[in-house]
């Protein structure tokens, strides 16, 4: 192999490597993006983990532009009050809204819901998403699906959670999809991801913050 061919190979390698590198660093959010949290304790788990170890705290280590409106125990109806608190200044393509709600609505029914009942709850969820779009039509909407607690006591809710997550995926695949899916279900999959059997743990906080920040 002569020097010319060797140079061509080296230059080609550098181009390929450079493209891969720049693609990597461009993925995910940046410190210039606004991150808005809406919903329940999946996103605001400060009551369940040591100080400085929540999802919010982990996000704030990556960017200062984290704005939390989520509250522990929130149900779908509570999200309207959270939405009312969000200034219209955030209505731009630089804003990423993350929503996690629905789990408490299912749990509050104290047992397995019928498919019709779960679908009715999800319809209320879509009503809220439409209200969000009506107020903040330019933002990037990201929906967290529901996780399945590892504690066997919650197995009776599995069919409702599975159906809910199917509906989340089904509506995201429609023409003119309203949102991107954040797959919390697959993310939280070990007992150490939970504290008090059902709340996101310190370990889960890191996982959730990371998956939020790499969202495209």
Describe the structure.
This protein has about 220 residues and is an alpha/beta fold. The protein has two domains: about 1-30; about 30-215, SGNH hydrolase (Rossmann fold, 3-Layer(aba) Sandwich). It contains eight helices and seven strands, in the order H-E-H-E-H-E-H-H-E-H-E-H-E-E-H. The protein has helices at about 5-25, 55-60, 80-85, 105, 115-135, 160-170, 185, 200-215, and strands spanning about 35-40, 65-70, 95-100, 140-145, 180, 195, 200. The strands form two sheets. Strands 2-1-3-4-5 form a five-stranded parallel beta sheet. Helix 6 links the parallel strand 4 and strand 5.
CATH topology group of the largest domain = Rossmann fold
State the separation between the terminal residues, measured CA to CA.
Answer: 43 Å
Strand content: 5-15%
Helical percentage: 40-55%
The total count of helices amounts to 8
Assembly of the depicted chains: single chain
Rounded mean pLDDT score:
88
Looking at the structure, what is the overall shape? globular
Q: In the CATH classification, which architecture of the largest domain applies?
A: 3-Layer(aba) Sandwich
Radius of gyration: 20 Å
> Secondary-structure element sequence?
HEHEHEHHEHEHEEH
Report the strand count: 7
Structural class, by secondary structure, is: alpha/beta
* Spatial sequence of strands, sheet with the most strands: 2-1-3-4-5
CATH class term of the largest domain: Alpha Beta
Question: What is the domain total for the residues?
Answer: 2
CATH superfamily of the largest domain: SGNH hydrolase
The residue ranges in which pLDDT falls below 50 over 5 or more consecutive positions are 8-26
The biggest beta sheet is recorded as: 5 strands, parallel
